[in-house]
Amino acid sequence: MNYNQAQQRVHDLKKFYKNLLWFGIVAAIIFADDIFKKGFHLSLWNGSIILTIWGIILTVKAVKLFIFDSEWEQGIIEKEMKRTKEPIQF
Q1: 23-64 pLDDT per residue, tens
Q2: Is there a domain that residue 26 lies in?
Q3: SS3 for 43?
């Protein structure tokens, strides 16, 4: 991993953690508002659907950031090169 890739990864991690922090803050506000207004009867349409969609997006970003990173990509490229045993034309 060169300097530019490392810098981009740190930038992506920083963005992800900021999004995760904002998700937690907004979720706490929405759930607290629901609990104070309706008790413990949470409704799907009063913000929970937004949190669900936002949570799915954060999950996809986390998988991309932590599982399918550049090292994973490099490993797949190396396996493919070994499998075909042909030089890659750039």
Answers
A1: 999 988 888 887 787 766 655 556 678 888 899 999 999 998
A2: yes
A3: coil
3-class SS of residue 2: coil
* Tokens found for residue 16: 């992800």
Q: Within a domain: residue 53?
A: yes
Number of residues in the chain:
90
> How many domains does one find in the chain?
1
CA 43 vs. chain centroid, Å, equals 26
Residue type, 26: V
Give helix 3-38 / helix 49-62 axis angle, nearest 10°. Answer: 160
**8: helix, strand or coil:** helix
